């Protein structure tokens, strides 16, 4: 709600700005904590409308952690929104696989 208020927008204006991707009723439920974990695509749309960081909204929703690895890079929970109940070992394996794929693309 603070982001919407800071943007000077009504619920209906946000709905219009997202081309009705997010209804004003859904946004109201989100602001009143009736929806605890909005989907990443909703957060992306809101980040665009509010001109704020998508990563920050993802952290606030619990999709990314603010843990930092020894290298100083932030370690995000890449697949936790796609697959629920991952063990830390499974999550690390997914992160390693993602790094491998990205490395292959660079070649």
From TrEMBL:
**Pfam families cross-referenced by the UniProt entry:** HTH_3
> InterPro entries under this entry?
Cro/C1-type_HTH, Lambda_DNA-bd_dom_sf
Q: Which residues form the HTH cro/C1-type domain?
A: 2-57
- What are the protein's GO molecular function terms? DNA binding
**The name this protein goes by in its record:** XRE family transcriptional regulator
Taxonomy, top ranks, is: Bacteria, Pseudomonadati, Pseudomonadota, Gammaproteobacteria, Acidiferrobacterales
